[in-house]
Amino acid sequence: MLRKCLPLLLGALMVLTGSSCFNILETIRLNKDGSGTYTVDMDLSEAMEMVVQFAGAFEDQEESEDFMNEVMDTVISFAQAPDSAKTGWEYPEVTSRASMQVTMDAPAESMRMQIMLPFNTVEEIDQFGADLARTEDLGMAGALGENAGSAGKPVLLSAPDQFGFSKGTLSRKRVDGAALFGGEEGDEDIEMMKLFLGGATYTVRYELPGKVKKVTGEAFEQPDKHTVVMERDITDLLDNKTDLAVEIRFK
User: Fold this and answer.
1) CA 204/CA 118 separation, integer angstroms
2) What is the mean pLDDT of residues 180-209?
3) Which one of 156, 163, 167, 200 has the fewest CB atoms closer than 10 angstroms to its CB?
4) pLDDT attached to residue 8
């Protein structure tokens, strides 16, 4: 049953990412030496009703009912992706460290997808995003079943050369809104995102290894002495009405 559910869920994501029924949380946990952990968490719980409707794809009624009662928690390692999925990677030693976790509790109408990358330098975040932008899919179709299709490629900000780190300072440069999502202004896919993503938010959370001394950037919050949070409307990002540029100095 798990093998059949995963392609269905990943296919549903293609529809769900064209609606405002989800929010994205990007978290960067930084260590003093510049290494850390990067995660992108998509909470799709609000759209779970739509996902359950995809259960109708099962011809067998019993399978459909099983899906509606399904609870799963699975982790997919990028290192185990088929060679055909890795051919576009320029930084396989980085991207192979990543993993994707898909959790679903159909009775509770909850669903989440999380991508995680342990990095040695913040520049590896850019390299990871670049590899995803070059990849048509992550091999999930081959690994999970032919119905997964291109849904194996998750949403991830993919503009190059965003991040920088020097002792006591973490920075992220301003880039064009469309480029954040791997496109250019006027691209059909970008225009479609603007139409369907009204109300969806992109939140970035920086967790620093020392006390924050100064933050340079627009519209941020500090829930505690070691954390900086920036929340943006995705359509505002795409229209360049706001950005994610920031410089954080810490002790």
Assistant:
1) 17
2) 78
3) 167
4) 45
- If one counts the domains in the chain, the total is 1
Cβ-based burial of 10 (10 A; exposed 0-12, middle 13-18, buried ≥19): buried
Domain range spanning residue 58?
A: 2-250
CA-based R_g, the chain, Å: 19
Please report the pLDDT score of residue 209 as a whole number.
97
pLDDT above 60 for 15: no
Of 85 and 18, more confident: 85
pLDDT attached to residue 95: 92
Strand order in the sheet with 23-30: 71-77, 99-105, 110-119, 36-43, 23-30, 201-207, 227-233, 221-224
Torsional class of 240: left (φ above 0), alpha (ψ -120 to 50), beta (otherwise)? left
Residue 164, pLDDT > 90, answer yes
The string of DSSP codes covering 68-95 is HT-EEEEEEEGGGS-HHHHTT-S-HHHH
CA–CA separation, 36 and 158 (whole Å) = 19
210 C-beta neighbours (distance < 10 Å), count: 13
